[in-house]
Amino acid sequence: MVRLVCFEWRKHFLKRSIIIAMLLFSVLNIAKVYSIHEESSLLANPGWKDLYWKEWADFGGAITNKRIEKLMNIYLPLEQLTADHTASTKYRTPDTYLSNVYEDWNFFRLNYVDPMKYAYDYKAYAQGVVSAAKENIAFYESVDNSYERNKNAVIAKLFEGRSITSFAYTEMYQYYVQYDFSGLLVLLICLYGLMSVFLHEKVTEMDILLLTSKAGGKATIWAKLIASALFVSSVSFWFWVVDFVSFSIIFDSWDAASSPLFMLVDFIHAALNVSLWQYAILSALIKTAGILVFALAFLFMSILFRNALIPFIISLFISFISIYFEEVTMGSGRIWIKVINPFVLLFNRELFRKIEFVSLVGFPLPSYIAALLLATAWGALLLGGILIVVRKNTLWKGGGNRVHLEV
Amino acid sequence: MKVAFKEISKQYKGKYALHNFSAELERGVYGLLGTNGAGKTTLINILVGILKSDKGQVLINDIDARKSGVQFLSHIGYLPQFPQFYKNFEVMDFLKYMCLLKEIPLQQGEKRAKELLEVVNLSSAARKKIGALSGGMRQRVGIAQAMLGDPDILILDEPTAGLDPQERIRFRNLITKFSENRIVLLATHIVSDIEFIANQVILLKDGQLLKQDTPQALMESLNGKVWHVIATDKTLDEKLKRLKISNMQRDQDNILLRVIDDEKPDEHAASVQANLEDVFLYYFGEGEQW
């Protein structure tokens, strides 16, 4: 089987065109990350960047009263000076850190005060959530609503003991977790690469030789599926690594790796108690699983036709329609519609940024588990479809059925 | 090894591609002869399991091929019509891949692949990409892959397409050598492919078995039905319209016609010995207009 998989890999994926596409798309991906940094990062301004890392020595790390006091000693005078907008805007006065007091105020507010305040207040906020959830549990118990009671029990357990004790530079992760462009690139490369897996055999008339060879049947079909899964995983892995390395290098830090996921403001209600580095790995794995589901859909489409163009267009259409529905349902309360779409695995922050539930026979199931289960069901359905529809030798058990859309 | 087709029928969109076809094959070279669309490829596809017959069965040593399942495939070497193979594979790698598909042990397969490349005169191209080969060379790769594993039944569908005359002679010699104790089924509409090497010829027309016999017997059956007739430019058109002509040869002012007819076509006509091309024309050539 290993040798069959290697041959399938060589046949379909060891192509110059795929390697060139990978390289060009990687460059494009890096350029995109760079543009995000330039457009959105507070530290894209070299003056701010220098000052940030200079001040980091005083304010980075464990959040202590001493550090907060020191920060407030800088910030509060700036706030007072800028409160009525009458302070001098003269460029580079001797008592300012940056060009003027307004810039100083903005710098400290955006880079240190607001993030540190969020981190400092988070413990109390989480305790508030836990208290509210416990009150809800008592209430729903009294009205005998077990679904809501269970839901609140999960929330209470999730938020119990949450706190942020250390201040870290999270900007890189803030944009990294929002970054979806590479997912689209991976999807396009996979679509291109996978289209030939079954179709190429038909075009070269090799399907007949395969069907009349002992290992050309089920073993080859499985070898194709395994090689395709390896290809999808490799391309995904490559791009997720490029993403992480690019963000780390361009943002010049991956400092907050061990900070909790809820340290990001967007993830204040994070559905998991994991660190940022754990989330980065989990997110990459879930994205890969999502692409695998789409890969099966592409393979299934390619089996039905004799030329590549029609299944390519249909597969592209399926991808875009999934993206469209994902965008429509993103942030909405239509959780079932959201989780039934396997594309949600590629936009998986939607599943983890807040805890949401779907009712599974009256049991509150976190939306990320529902999404994973439904994606598995999609995958199994498509895999079954491939195994049923793929052409077989009539001498095999169950052979002889052939579905062929001649377009 | 014995292969028997028992009343095989196959229809496509209500039209019979094969109709109650029965034949028996034992060791030797069998030429499956018929015009395009006669059902040759359909018959082969049913034999190798690519198609399911609507009716009838294929027996291998008196056992239904379907009962043998995939094990039957290990007895088969098959060269399909117009194979392209994988352009980005080197010849040797492709043969190794075919060994893997046929479940031939690696070392044994590699040794046999080298021998077969020698036989089909492609040793020097072993490291060439298939995409860089000419049509004839690619066809020879196809012949080599079919022979990997020394199958008991070798099935070749239009095997000489793209081969030059020298390669055809080489191919014929190779098949004759290979056919010892084996069945070779060679489907073609090129008569010369099988004229000299087939032990039996199966004539297939509109999906039905027309005749199965030795080439000699088929040719003898046309004794007194093949004639040489001399025509001039003036009488040629009339003769072309009236007679079934297998060959024309100009000899100064006269034209020598080779005519196939149950009756003596002309009072000066001379009876000549039939060849297999005459047999082909006799059975498949009606309605031809020149």
UniProtKB/TrEMBL annotation, chain A:
Keywords: Membrane, Transmembrane, Transmembrane helix. The chain crosses the membrane at residues 181-200, 221-241, 276-301, 308-325, 368-390. This is ABC transporter permease. It comes from Paenibacillus terricola. The lineage of its organism: Bacteria, Bacillati, Bacillota, Bacilli, Bacillales.
Automatic annotation (TrEMBL), chain B:
Keywords: ATP-binding, Nucleotide-binding, Transport. The keyword Lipid metabolism does not apply. It comes from the Bacteria. PROSITE patterns: ABC_TRANSPORTER_1, ABC_TRANSPORTER_2. One of its GO terms (molecular function) is ATP binding. Residues 3-231 form the ABC transporter domain. InterPro entries: AAA+_ATPase (IPR003593), ABC_transporter-like_ATP-bd (IPR003439), ABC_transporter-like_CS (IPR017871), P-loop_NTPase (IPR027417). Belongs to the ABC transporter superfamily. This is ABC transporter ATP-binding protein. It comes from Paenibacillus terricola.
